[in-house]
Amino acid sequence: MSLPPGFLDELHQRTSIVQVAGRKVTWDHRQSNPGKGDMWAPCPFHQEKTASFHVDDQKGLYYCFGCHAKGNTIEFLKQIENIGFMEAVEILAREAGMAMPARDPQAREKADRHRQLAGVMDQATRFFRRGLSGSRGAGARDYLEGRGLTGATCDRFEIGFAPDDHNALLRYMTEKGVSEKDLIETGLVIRPDNGGTVYDRFRGRIMFPIRDARSRCIAFGGRALSPEARARYLNSPKTELFDKGRSLYNFGPAREAVRKTGSLIVAEGYMDVIALAQAGFDHAVAPLGTAVTEDQLQLLWRVSDEPIMAFDGDRAGLRAAYRLIDLALPMLRPGRSLRFAILPQGQDPDNLIKISGSAAMQKLLDSARPMVKLLWQRETEGKTFDSPERRAGLDATLRMALRNIRDTGLRRHYGDAIQQLRQSLFRPSRAAPWQRFRHRTPTATHGSRASILAQAGDKGPERLREALILTAAIRCPAAALEMEDALERLPISSPDLAKILAALLASLNEDLSADATGEKFLALVTERLGTNPMEPLLALPRIRMHPMLRPGAPPERIGQTLREELVKHAAIKGAETELEEAARDLDDMADEGLTWRIQQAADARDKATRARIEAGADTENRENLSKGLQKLLDDQVWVKKKG
289: domain range? Predict the structure, then answer.
């Protein structure tokens, strides 16, 4: 519908945004200046305690310095009430005493029809309410009392009862002048496909009215009392008023409560919401018999930046949480996510509160986990990763999931978080063998041991090898991705190079399929690191002059270099480890076990020596290691000498 020129200008002149917004916020009088129409309050659109929401009454505008929501009086009403433009205009015009221009006949007819059907639903609500208090509602009252619901709670949620009668509601409503057509269109009665007599949809059920954001009754949910019922819960069908995928139970009251609590709880069903509300958790909603939909997620995020999903502690509840992750990932954006409070095994909010009290529920909500941790749990729970193939499978699955995140910055942070979780699983915090003795000071006892350890302490060749590996990995991300597991286990002695490795591994979570030259990968590592990683790497002349790492080198040759250097580095570190441990144990061991360990170190030394190498410093390092090992073998220090 188009509005005549000047209508909106007059509407804005007649309405005060301070008055309209004042119904939804609490003004901070210390910062506000009512005389000038300059008002401040905590923002109603996101969770906060400080007054960052500013209203300028003279200009008729609002702006939040926290979430950056902004607009005029109409926009405020649209956002706060979750309504359309024309609906907001109608509300403001009515308050201002302005007559709305003639509307499109079809639009007016549709709005009038909705009001008429909503009136039918209100009449049905009153019928069901009387049914609960009547003689035929005794069983329903006993059930509700057994579930711990008080009379005040039943009144608050307008809980009713549909008698176990095929046409009790039909008779009542037709006597009130409601047409059979209206009853069918609201879903209250059913016409059989064979054209037979219509009958009540809800029979022998406890009834829960479902209201929209404007508190209009748009549908019902019914809980069967008979254990023989085909469906324990039954919802109204899709109608002109109701689409269950776009609605949430208790949405209106919960939205109001969120402004006080700062959080929103999403439970699985009506009874969970009602039990939570009775225990003081007024800020709870529930989907209507289905998994959470995209439209429902958008509704949730309009009320809270991080709704808490409080799902039942059974396999079905966990599966629902896992499915929700896939739906939510493409919809995430900075500052907008989900948290998960999975209840203990076999419990829902209702029985958790009954057994352990409200404090236990609050503790569970306070410890709700971020979505990235539940994603990690979904992909690792009950699985064993004892082979490179299984670890590679996990990496591929996680990468595919993270690619669904559209915001690049957020996807990067998810990658960093996954990388930390991966390291905690595959690289425990306990020191690796080569780290245990790295800072050990050689003693004067056993001169051979002291001299060998001193040689191993020279970090020049070691830093050169590490820098060479990192340079090759950055220049050829495809090879780095292929050898990610080996890079994860790579021991790094230099703190600055360790930071480069961490940024490199985290950046492998990005989509690098089209990055043949490594330029995109280098940019990602640089962004994570805050500085170009190639500067300290290329500061080493041997790296700068390496024939396989120069600009323009074929990717397959760079990848081959990376593989060779990783194998070489592992062999040398393995030999160093065995030598250090053997030397440390000389005082305690004098048997063939030590002989075998040193022989193993010698074998590792030989493999490292046979590896093709370009850098002379590495040759010198291995020669020193070889001499130390050979001396131990020749002296047979583990043999006890006579006399």
Answer: 252-430
